[in-house]
Specification:
Blueprint: H1 3-24, H2 31-46, H3 52-56, H4 72-94, E1 129-130, E2 141-142, H5 143-154, E3 158-161, H6 168-181, H7 189-212, H8 227-240, E4 245-250, H9 255-261, H10 267-275, E5 294-299, E6 305-310, H11 321-334, E7 343-350, H12 351-356, H13 358-366, E8 378-383, E9 386-387, E10 390-391, E11 412-416, H14 420-437, E12 441-446, H15 464-472, H16 476-487, H17 489-511, H18 525-531, H19 551-562, H20 572-588, E13 590-591, H21 593-606, E14 611-615, E15 629-631, E16 638-640, E17 654-657, H22 663-674, E18 680-684, H23 695-702, H24 705-709, E19 716-720, H25 735-740, E20 748-750, H26 755-767, E21 774-778, E22 790-791, E23 803-804, E24 816-820, H27 824-834, E25 840-845, E26 847-849, H28 853-860, E27 867-875, H29 881-887, E28 894-898, H30 909-924
Parallel strand pairs: 4-6, 4-7, 7-8, 8-12, 11-12, 14-17, 14-18, 18-19, 19-21, 20-21, 24-25, 24-27, 27-28
Antiparallel strand pairs: 1-2, 3-11, 5-6, 9-10, 13-22, 15-16, 20-26, 23-25
Length: about 900
């Protein structure tokens, strides 16, 4: 079967199906198809009798496919009408494969199957009038005019991909915008002036830096300068449509240009980065110039003001994406009361990174999820066709770098970076689409990279032929200037004026004479909230703040935890859970782990503060200890217990079962905490080792963000940890990693053993006058351990206890002190009490970092002559021992642990039991 037979048969069937639907109900098909079929019916009625249709087109007469008698000529034309309709449909689907989007080389032949011959059409049909022109909104038209329209719309400087979208209203809206506006698009003289102004600024900036700081790394935007007018257009259009805040995430390519020409950061402050100066007021170690963030208040040409932020970003490409989304969601929730149209995230990608980094897929999958949606992201790909030194043929299997967009039915606009007006069109259309449908949209701007990966790199080592072309290729600004000169007197005069302005601007920059003042930044409520906090001091960790809660508040929260509506039918196991909660809270006045945790959340909500918890299966909890959300056994209806605390100003609990992602979700929660200084924001791993997949976020944001960028963050990581014989992965959350990353009071690492200490630890996060990330080695077996309970009274007073001493041992008899943390304590306690070992004291370090040295000294003061032993379940090369050696070099500390090992734990239950028993026995020998 040849191409035509295959295509024509399938598309003819599709058209016939539409026609039959039209006959039943004209409104069931799109308006353009209605017009097409009206033309069919008109021709059927009048064509055979020499009527108007026949006069208009003497060779053929279109007729309907409803079985009525047709002459051979009529039949041939009827078939060709279907062929033309099929051709139009094919251009909509595959025209992008022909689009002239590449400014420096011809496109690969992707076999688009868009020749006339593919549809049994030929040049002989070009002057035949077809009703199918109605489908394009141009009315009955010759095939020549139809083809010209298709070429201009779908095979020009923009390649539109959207036909895979499954919602018909979304697809129709896009098609109507594209087909009606692309044909006639011509920016106003004001818009052309603005485009050229921004191209001038972008080019001047790069020329200036290349002249003044030759050979220094700047990751220039040259070749992709049209990014600047594109971002300008996106932001201006967003402001015109009511957006009040934009949050941008991008890697290093072009970042300095964006800082200067979009956010208005002064040249002088950018020079400081090149000259190695340390900016005043910097707390910490700082970061390289092309990683820094910024914020400004931008005024658009229409006089609208919009807050624009650029998030700081590490070298790890695309890592900032979930942070931007989390920040945006928090601002939408808090600042804009859930109105996503008021804040818009923009993610700027590189082509190799958007295709190659898994975090892009994770964040894309978040786009429509209730816990993570942000009302749509505008994605802008600076597609310079090479990743460091790797050609795109080696960088992806997909045709386009942006194909990830298709998993969420996001449209993609591929556009030639040498055509600023086409990019401008895409920018405006993208914002309109985002605001209309509150969903993602991608712009893939195909351009090139003028220099190597950095300015001291030689790209001809790996792309000699491509860079031979680039060397001779004019920059986008000069190309656009030339186009304007060639077009008309008005455009030519604009080009001449702007050319003079360009040369003047460049000279002034070179002379460092003129510098526009930095755009003033009007702080939002968020900025004021952060300003009320301060940087931590070493003495802040000598004692935790008071975090007790009144009994009345605990009782009110507690009642919400054990009460459900009369018509709610829980499972029998949940019924028992509710009775147990009630018994703990109203009779025994002793609470277990899960209850203390929920009481902590409820007490914070009662203060009107946000609590957000997300992660895999967090509503129930991996180990079924939490049950913060209950399910009706009969109809699966949900009941959020903590939403029923009552009391004026009480906030609602935000608790979301996440997608099966760690990197993306942890990054999202870090971003959320960045925008909510007075919220308790928590990510819980299903098992502690799951955080391995989020190590980039931990290393580059959580551990180092404050030192690099001066940004505080109070995100909490709950990482289930403890040796219960569940094998290598599900035993160990790798506490040594976090302790190795700990220094300069950058974060808090804890392994707590009592419900009361958990309660105070969580509340301490917001009680401190500063914010620190908190990493918790959460328990598993301790969740139901009979001894892991705390008196309710301990929650009404006191504070977090960094160190817990031994009330059982006799200080006068003690010859050995067992220092430990976490679950192993209860196994040591069992042996101590069973054997009456009052001569061995067990001291718990509930907090590892910052190491509570004063608290440790205070407890150990009563055991001055005792031997100090560190006991841990983990192998010697893991866990806490090496950290303690570093932090307490003067202390002689004998270790008791599993032997150093490559794997975190044995996979055999029998071996585990023997090893655990050996550790406990050795501790007391």
């Amino acid at each position: 079967m040849d191409n035509y037979s295959y295509i024509a048969n399938s598309d003819a069937a599709y058209v016939d199906q539409l026609y039959q639907a039209y006959k039943q109900d004209p409104n069931s098909v799109d308006a353009s198809w209605q017009k097409f079929f009206e033309g069919f019916d008109f021709s059927l009625t009048y064509g055979e009798n020499g009527g108007k249709a026949a006069n208009r087109n003497k060779e053929t007469t279109p007729v309907a496919t409803n079985g009525q008698t047709k002459t051979p000529v009529d039949a041939r034309h009827s078939e060709k009408e279907v062929s033309v309709a099929s051709l139009i449909k094919a251009y909509r689907s595959r025209g992008h494969l022909l689009a002239q989007t590449n400014p420096i080389r011809s496109r690969k032949d992707r076999n688009p199957r868009l020749e006339l011959s593919d549809y049994a059409l030929s040049d002989a049909d070009l002057d035949t009038v077809f009703e199918a022109g109605n489908l394009l909104g141009i009315g009955p038209a010759t095939l020549r005019d139809i083809m010209a329209s298709l070429e201009k719309i779908y095979a020009g400087r923009i390649g539109f991909e959207y036909m895979y979208i499954r919602e018909i209203d979304v697809k129709n809206w896009l098609r109507n915008k594209i087909e009606k506006e692309a044909l006639v698009f011509d920016p106003t003289i004001q818009e052309k002036t603005r485009i050229l102004e921004k191209l001038n600024e972008a080019t001047v900036f790069e020329n200036f830096l290349h002249t003044k700081f030759l050979g220094q790394k700047r990751f220039s935007l040259e070749g992709g300068e049209t990014t600047i007018p594109a971002l300008d257009a996106i932001i201006n259009k967003a402001a015109d449509m009511g957006v009040e805040e934009v949050m941008i995430g991008m890697a290093h390519r072009g970042r300095l240009n964006v800082l200067a020409n979009i956010l208005g950061k002064s040249y002088e402050s950018i020079f400081d980065g090149f000259e190695g100066n340390v900016p005043s007021g910097i707390h910490g170690d700082g970061d390289v110039k092309y990683h820094l963030g910024y914020a400004s208040l931008t005024e658009t040409p229409a006089g609208k003001r919009i807050n624009v932020k650029l998030a700081p970003n590490p070298s790890h490409l695309e890592a900032v994406n979930p942070v931007v989304e989390g920040f945006t969601r928090a601002q939408a929730d808090e600042e804009y009361k859930g109105d996503f149209t008021k804040i818009m995230p923009i993610l700027i990608h590189g082509d190799a990174a958007v295709a190659g980094q898994g975090i892009v897929y994770e964040v894309t999958q978040m786009a429509k999820l209730p816990g993570y949606q942000t009302g749509g992201t505008v994605h802008f790909v600076i597609n310079n066709q090479v990743g460091f030194t790797t050609d795109f043929d080696d960088a992806r299997s997909s045709i386009y770098c942006s194909d990830v967009a298709k998993i969420i039915d996001a449209p993609i606009f591929h556009v030639n970076g040498d055509d600023p007006e086409a990019v401008f069109f895409c920018a405006k259309l993208a914002v309109e689409f985002r605001e209309m449908f509150k969903r993602d949209v991608f712009i893939d701007m195909v351009c090139y990279r003028r220099y190597g990966h950095n300015e001291s790199d030689e790209p001809k080592f790996t792309q000699p032929t491509m860079y031979a072309v680039i060397d001779k290729h004019a920059n986008p600004r000069d190309i656009y200037n030339k186009q304007l000169v060639e077009r008309s007197e008005v455009d030519a005069q604009l080009a001449a004026n702007m050319d003079a302005e360009f040369k003047k601007l460049l000279q002034e920059r070179l002379d460092r004479v003129k510098q526009k003042a930095e755009i003033p930044y009007k702080p939002l409520r968020l900025d004021q909230q952060w300003a009320e906090l301060r940087t931590s001091q070493p003495e802040d960790f000598d004692q935790s703040p008071e975090t007790g809660v009144s009994l009345e508040t605990l009782e009110r929260v507690g009642q919400a935890l054990y009460t459900v509506p009369d018509n709610f039918k829980p499972l029998k196991q949940i019924d028992k859970l509710l009775r147990d909660r009630k018994q703990m809270l109203t009779e025994s006045k002793q609470v277990n782990w899960g209850t203390a945790e929920l009481l902590a959340y409820g007490s914070i909500l009662s203060e009107g503060k946000v609590v957000r918890l997300s992660g895999q299966d967090v509503q129930r909890g991996t180990f079924s200890h939490r049950h913060a959300v209950l399910h009706d056994s009969e109809n699966n209806g949900l009941y959020y217990s903590l939403d029923h605390i009552g009391g004026e100003g009480t906030a609602k609990m935000q608790i979301y079962n996440s997608l099966l992602s760690e990197y993306g979700v942890l990054g999202f929660e870090y971003g959320y905490a960045m925008a909510t200084p007075h919220a308790l924001v928590i990510w819980e791993a299903q098992f502690g080792d799951f955080a391995n997949g989020a190590q980039t976020m931990i290393d580059q944001f959580i551990a180092a963000g404050e030192s690099k960028w001066g940004i505080q963050n109070g995100v909490v990581m709950l990482l289930p940890h403890g040796y219960e014989g569940q094998g290598p992965e599900h035993s160990n959350a790798r506490p040594e990693r976090y302790l190795q990353l700990s220094a300069q009071y950058n974060m808090v690492v804890c392994n707590v053993t009592t419900p009361a200490n958990l309660f105070h630890m969580l509340r301490r996060q917001l009680a401190w006058p500063f914010r620190k990330p908190l990493v918790v080695m959460s328990p598993k077996s301790l969740l139901r351990h009979p001894q892991v309970i705390s008196p309710l009274e301990d929650l009404t007073k006191g504070r977090f206890q960094e160190v817990l001493g031994d009330p059982y041992a006799d200080p006068k008899k003690v010859k050995r002190v067992l220092l430990c943390t976490g679950k192993i304590y209860y196994e040591l306690l069992e042996k101590q009490q069973a054997e009456g070992r009052t001569d061995v004291a067990i001291v718990r370090l509930e907090q590892l970092h910052p190491l509570p040295q004063k608290q440790i000294d205070a407890v150990l003061a009563q055991y001055k002559k005792a031997e100090l032993v560190w006991v841990q379940e983990e192998p010697l090369n893991m866990g806490y021992y090496t950290y303690l050696l570093r932090e307490m070099p003067e202390v002689r500390l004998r270790p008791v642990s599993r032997p150093a090992a490559a794997s975190p734990a044995t996979g055999f239950a029998k071996n585990h039991t023997q090893e655990q028993a050996a550790i406990v026995a050795k501790a007391f020998e």
